[in-house]
Automatic annotation (TrEMBL):
<dbReference type="Pfam" id="PF00005">
    <property type="entry name" value="ABC_tran"/>
</dbReference>
<dbReference type="GO" id="GO:0016887">
    <property type="term" value="F:ATP hydrolysis activity"/>
</dbReference>
<protein>
    <submittedName>
        <fullName>ABC-2 type transport system ATP-binding protein</fullName>
    </submittedName>
</protein>
<keyword id="KW-0813">Transport</keyword>
<keyword id="KW-0067">ATP-binding</keyword>
<dbReference type="InterPro" id="IPR027417">
    <property type="entry name" value="P-loop_NTPase"/>
</dbReference>
<comment type="similarity">
    <text>Belongs to the ABC transporter superfamily.</text>
</comment>
<dbReference type="InterPro" id="IPR003439">
    <property type="entry name" value="ABC_transporter-like_ATP-bd"/>
</dbReference>
<keyword id="KW-0547">Nucleotide-binding</keyword>
<feature type="domain" description="ABC transporter">
    <location>
        <begin position="3"/>
        <end position="232"/>
    </location>
</feature>
<dbReference type="InterPro" id="IPR003593">
    <property type="entry name" value="AAA+_ATPase"/>
</dbReference>
<dbReference type="GO" id="GO:0005524">
    <property type="term" value="F:ATP binding"/>
</dbReference>
Length: 308
């Protein structure tokens, strides 16, 4: 087991930030921790990485208890906190050499470890550059370098793609996928599509509790389409649209585009198109809409409350 948390709970002052978080990760690949702002993602990650001491519960990394055997446990863990822990006045080489020392890499192997981490994250050409003169995307790569410099089995990344521009995002995702090829990456995000793109497993946390933990495929079952957007050249009336079998509600978003809500109706798209052809609505586009993250949260929260 690479990571195991047992009934992990933490409170700041009187209020609990997380309650009874149980996570078990045995395989390689990318696992997503999904939750809205304030759900408890950072608290969970900080405890897993030994940066914050939990109020209750236990964390084991590769079988070692992070509180009882911190040195042993931390050998197997790399951490990229929400703000990359870089020193702006050091060069990339100076900073990575320093982090290699912190990670207790033997002196005669530090140069090699620094070179390898830079190579993996594509920053070798910036070795002598001061970190303050790097762009946000490259600073973050330096942050990732320090997280993998000791070749840990588990890399924990707190919102690693937050605040990156579209190009940096694509590069960052590519890098994270590469890093996860031979280890486990646990990453957090409040953006569903981000977790969707990257992760094979998802742990969803809301108000400090896990409300879903399973494969991405299983998660997708909660995202059944419930509405369809249709654009017309000759828009019909709401009543005409309601006559289509399975449609139970209609709202026009613009003059020419309507949202049709339906209940588990099969072949609905085909029926809409057929009706459109018959009555000359001249349909330009039909697109299924997936449930919004808020709805999924609501759905899952109600279900988990029922199970308690
Ligand atoms: N140092 C602290 N002192 C008091 N309360 C805190 C502290 N850090 C976090 N909290 C509270 O604990 C809860 C969980 O916060 P946490 O930062 O873990 O959530 P998060 O899911 O990471 O959210 P975000 O994406 O906004 O960082 C929130 O209600 C937050 O206000």
């Amino acid at each position: 087991m690479i990571l195991k948390t047992e009934n992990l709970s933490h409170r700041y002052g009187a209020s609990w930030a997380i309650r009874d978080i149980n996570i078990e990760i045995a395989e390689h690949g990318i696992i997503g921790l999904l939750g809205s702002n304030g759900a408890g993602k950072s608290t969970t990650m900080n405890i897993i990485c030994g940066v914050l001491n939990q109020t209750e519960g236990k964390v084991s990394i590769n079988g070692a208890d992070i509180r009882k055997e911190p040195e042993l446990a931390k050998q197997h863990i790399g951490f990229l906190p929400q703000t990359p822990p870089v020193y702006l006045d050091l060069t990339v080489d100076e900073y990575l050499t320093y982090t290699a020392e912190l990670r207790l890499i033997p002196g005669n192997r530090i140069k090699e470890a620094v070179a390898e981490a830079k190579e993996r994250t594509g920053i070798a050409h910036f070795s002598k550059r001061l970190i303050k003169n790097l762009s946000g995307g490259y600073r973050q790569r330096v942050g990732i370098s320090q997280a993998i410099i000791h070749k840990p089995k588990l890399v924990v990344m707190d919102e690693p793609t937050n605040g990156l521009d579209p190009n940096q995002l694509i590069e960052a995702r590519k890098l994270i996928r590469e890093i996860a090829q031979d280890r486990t990456v646990l990453l957090s995000s409040h953006i569903l599509s981000e977790i969707h793109l990257l992760c094979k497993e998802v742990i969803m946390i809301e108000s400090g509790r896990i409300i879903f933990s399973d494969s991405m495929d299983a998660f997708n079952n909660y995202m059944q389409p419930q509405s369809v957007l249709v654009s017309f050249v000759n828009p019909p009336s709401v009543n005409e649209l309601k006559q289509i079998d399975g449609v139970n509600q209609v709202e026009y978003i613009t003059e020419k585009q309507a949202r049709l809500f339906f209940d588990g109706a099969e072949d609905l798209t085909e029926r809409i198109i057929a009706a459109g052809m018959q009555q000359n609505w001249r349909i330009r586009e039909v697109g299924l809409e997936k449930g919004m993250l808020d709805d999924i949260f609501k759905q899952l929260s109600t279900q988990s409350n029922k199970n308690i």
